[in-house]
Specification:
By secondary structure, the protein is mainly β. It is built from one helix and 43 strands.
Length: 380
């Protein structure tokens, strides 16, 4: 058994060591005030609205910039906020307006643009982007999908910008719980990806312009009075539209070449042309089409590709033409659709694979169905 004096001595030593360690621990640096032209290497804040002549703020290292409700205004040129690849950086609570590019990126000093381990994680929370030439060039050199570079936007507002996201090769942009209003083009990318969830898109000229070898996902969102959602014409891209309400567009989805779609559980209402799919493949399931001049038209993907166009479990009511698939290549399958009170054709789909379960009645053109067998109105 240790003596009481020895225990007391050991306790005193431990207390002394603890005091030394506490004194040696560095205190975290307080955020510093910054303005136009500053290079930020520690957490920082904008103390007042700043009007800059083409040179904004550059973030270096793992830092947070708090705009504190203020505006970082440009003169139509340069970059408002420049983030540095290889870092985790955040910008919160304010407005970035009037820049050539609201958010730009650069390599760290001496960085290799083709570095296979290069990454970046950049978060923007509660930030408004207004009147910029573009918001974010998400193309990161020639990474070509190899390195994880993420641009994340939450509670953001994008209004009156020429482009929101564009650029070739590289990054992924994720937008959540945000507003995208009256922009020229929301997405124009090549070999990149954009995901938009739980957001409101209204009055944009084009939601997706270029999706060359790229993917756009729009999920659980409201799209209203956008002239074009996706106009088509691109090669080997992918569009995923899920759980959303889409209205007031000249065209919702136009045809692409070797292009895949996933249109699931949406409401498409009061559009001129809802889906003009050409030779696209993928599922069109669980949607409601109402009061569109043309609800769904397609040629169907070529036979033997192994990737059919599946039009299954949809409801079409009050449109002009409901389902019109021409070409009969064998790459389209149709089943379990309910089609009634459309002023034009119900289901016109010679040569498709009939999965059964289709119903059609009170459509303007007879016979109600061509190419598939349809039951009539269900008994009440």
């Amino acid at each position: 058994m240790r003596s009481r004096p020895l225990v007391a001595a050991l306790s005193a030593v431990a207390a002394a060591v603890s005091s030394v360690l506490l004194l040696a621990a560095p205190a975290s640096a307080a955020p510093v005030a910054v303005s136009c032209g500053d290079v930020v290497t520690t957490d920082a804040y904008l103390a007042a609205d700043a009007a800059c002549a083409g040179v904004g703020i550059t973030l270096v290292g793992d830092v947070t910039l708090d705009l504190r409700g203020h505006a970082l205004d440009g003169d139509g040129s340069g970059a408002g906020i420049t983030v540095t690849l290889g870092s985790t950086q955040s910008v919160v609570d304010g407005t970035v307006s009037g820049w050539g590019s609201a958010v730009a990126h650069e390599q760290p000093d001496g960085g290799d643009p083709d570095d296979p381990v290069l990454f970046g994680d950049f978060t923007f929370t509660g930030v408004s982007f207004t009147g910029n030439g573009e918001v974010n060039d998400i193309g990161v050199g020639q990474l070509h999908g190899g390195s994880p570079v993420w641009f994340r936007y939450s509670g953001a507002r994008f209004e009156g910008n020429g482009f929101v996201f564009r650029g070739p090769y590289g990054g992924t942009a994720v937008v959540e719980d945000s507003e995208l209003l009256h922009n020229g083009t929301v997405v124009s990318i090549d070999t990149a990806d954009v995901v938009i969830e739980r957001s409101h898109l209204e009055g944009n000229d084009v939601v997706a312009g270029n999706l060359e070898e790229s993917g756009l996902t729009v999920r659980d969102s409201v799209l209203r009075d956008n002239r074009v959602v996706y106009g088509g014409g691109n090669v080997m891209g992918h569009l995923d539209l899920e759980g959303s309400e889409v209205s007031g567009s000249d065209i919702v989805v136009g045809s692409g070449l070797i292009f895949t779609v996933r249109v699931v559980d949406n409401v498409l209402v009061d559009n001129d042309v809802a889906l003009d799919l050409g030779t696209m493949s993928g599922p069109v399931t669980g949607n409601t089409f109402e009061r569109n001049r043309v609800a769904l038209t397609a040629e169907g993907p070529p036979a033997g590709t192994g990737f059919p166009l599946s039009v299954v479990g949809n409801t079409f009511v009050g449109n002009g033409d409901a389902i019109v698939v021409d070409g009969g290549s064998g790459g389209t399958e149709i089943g379990d659709n309910v089609v009634h009170h459309n002023t034009g054709r119900g289901i016109h789909a010679p040569g498709v694979t009939d999965l059964g379960g289709n119903r059609a009645w009170a459509n303007g053109v007879y016979p109600q169905c061509v190419g598939v067998v349809c039951a009539g109105k269900p008994r009440s």
